[in-house]
Amino acid sequence: MAPVEFICLLQLAVIAIVLAMVPVVGKVQVWGIRRYVGHPTDGDAPLPAWVQRSERAHLNLMENMIPFAVIVAGTMFGVSNETTQLGAEIFVVARLVQAIVHILGIPWVRSAAFLVSIGAMVAIVAEIGVPYLPTLFLH
Fold this sequence. Notes:
Mean pLDDT: 89
Structural class: mainly alpha
Distance between the termini: 34 Å
Shape: elongated
Helix content: over 70%
Number of strands: 0
Largest sheet: none
Order of helices and strands: HHHHH
Radius of gyration: 18 Å
Low-confidence stretches: none
CATH class: Mainly Alpha
Strand content: under 5%
């Protein structure tokens, strides 16, 4: 069976794919399919706030998936334990909550979920990276 951390990375990939489609739905609703598959211009109808927020939520997830993927790669070297597994699970839930409340426009919860996800990554890095810290940037 695959490590929990890797399963969490796969779950994030599914969330990212779904999030990539949310603004597409909004753009097709506002502009129609012909304009969407064509080239939008400055004269097109403005997009609703939720469509703009969904694009930002997707980009934010993508930005945070990169360091998370690197961290997960570190667990593939045999450093997988309850702390790294729980951290990965918390990260996934926090990112899902962050994306949903970002699209809904709920700022305080969005920020709290973001901070929880960062805290989860820090916990995983602390668990797998502490032995390497003294020489981490010396190579």
